Amino acid sequence: MPRERIRVFYYPDMFVDLATVKKAVLFFDELHFMDRPSFSFNRGAFGLVGAYSPLRRVEQAFREEGGVPFFVHDAPGGPVEGEFLDQITADLNDLEFLRRFQKGLKTSPTFRQIQIAPGNYGQWGNEENIYQSMYGVELATDLSSHASPSDLFLDRSIHPFDLSSATGRAKNFIHTAAGCSAKLNFALNSAAKWGFVPLADAAPYGDLMGTKYSRAVGRLGPTNNNIEVTDLSFAIFEKLVPSARLEKLSMGQVIDYRKKSEKAREAFLEHLVVLQAKHGEIGSDGDYSGTIDKLVVTEILPASRKFKNDLDAVSDEMFGKFAIGVVTGVAGITGNSILQFLGDLSLEKILSLAAIAAGYVTTVGIQGIMNDRKARRECSISYILSLDE
Predict the structure, then answer these.
(1) What's the rounded Cα separation, in Å, for the pair 55 and 52?
(2) CB within 8 A of 353, min separation 6: which ones?
(3) How far apart are the first and last CA of the chain?
(4) CA dist., res. 115 & res. 298, Å (int)
(5) 15-65 pLDDT, tens digit each
(6) Sheet containing 7-10: order of strands
(7) Is-contact 112 104, C-beta < 8 A?
(8) Number of other CB atoms surrounding residue 319 within 10 Å
(9) Any idea of the CA torsion for 194, 200, 206, 211, to the nearest 10 degrees?
């Protein structure tokens, strides 16, 4: 039975790092992006400013010239209300969600840049100053001025960009976390409605999803909450393929590799779907990243080592058989005579050696190719490992 197509939906922002696009092209069946949404909170008091994604300029070329199903969708907009607002409110009132959001700002430059756009923020300085104000928020004390973080978020008497007081800085922090939560929940809702798989390129997003799964377990009891195959794919790539290798590949080369290795890509994804179903369930602690790390260490790294060892064995066998065949095929050459023969590189000797070796090259070479293909068939992650060869 064929697996379901993996239709990924990139949700952090309308801007996407080129490395992320390359990985997505290498891995997934369909790629879906969106413009920046224009959600508004608290009756339009503040919100996200919508804009067109720059990917709109290339989506048609990806589909028509590259053969990659690549789509950019209109951004949602309007007031945040109903169940959507309830989902965001639950995130804001979850201190673990806020802690992981704050930790993400510190540990991931990619995540931080998505949340805090580079620029001049007037009297408050640049993006680094804004980040420092957010990281300096003491969640246990600076949020105590209101009954809940969501109450602070909705308090129109406190301006969200006034960083002159602890409460103002806390309001700005909550305001930024709300924007992140809105896009995260929209992605999860879209996944449930349209069959998309959420895709992000910064580890903190997985941690934030982990808190939502943990809440679901606490509220509803055991549930089948698995890591996303997208996050597992990216984690494997980061572990096995040097980033310098990806940078050297042009987008054209990436698309060409996808086309020529379609069966290997299919085997890779089928393997990951099985791993996800069997071993990717998140515990009640919501340790999303830990679950991924464990899978990579226990399942992926051993398979990669076996694959590389198998290829080394094929190479050693080919070289050994070739060397033995050539030497034993040269009549009357033994011991020191071999060294004399190889040292005398006259045209006549080179031609005679080539003639004798030709049969061995053909025989051993064909067998080596067959063994190499067998090793690749037996290792589903050979698709990604081959990128580093």
Answers:
(1) 8
(2) 326, 330
(3) 32
(4) 33
(5) 899 999 999 999 999 999 999 988 888 766 677 788 999 999 999 999 999
(6) 70-73, 30-34, 7-10, 197-199
(7) yes
(8) 12
(9) -50
Q: How far is CA 279 from CA 79, 97, 236, 348, in A?
A: 39, 24, 15, 63
Closest CA to 200 of 23, 49, 36: 23
**Spatial contact of 34 and 14, defined as CB atoms under 8 Å apart:** yes
In one-letter notation, the amino acid at residue 195 is: G
Q: How many residues does the chain have?
A: 389
What is the pTM for the complete model shown? 0.80
* CA 195 from centroid of its chain's CA atoms: 19
pLDDT per position as a tens digit, 214-263: 786 655 444 556 788 999 999 999 999 888 889 999 999 999 999 999 98
Residue type, 240: L
The domain limits of the chain are 7-201, 306-388
- Please give the structure tokens belonging to residue 66: 């590259």
CA distance 101 to 95: 10
Joined together, the tokens standing for residue 210 give 């982990």
Burial 336-368 (b: 16+ CB within 10 A, else e): eeeeebeeeeeeeeeeebeebbeebeeebeeeb
**Which one-letter amino acid corresponds to residue 188?**
L
Q: Supply angle C-alpha 324, 330, 335, rounded to 5.
A: 70
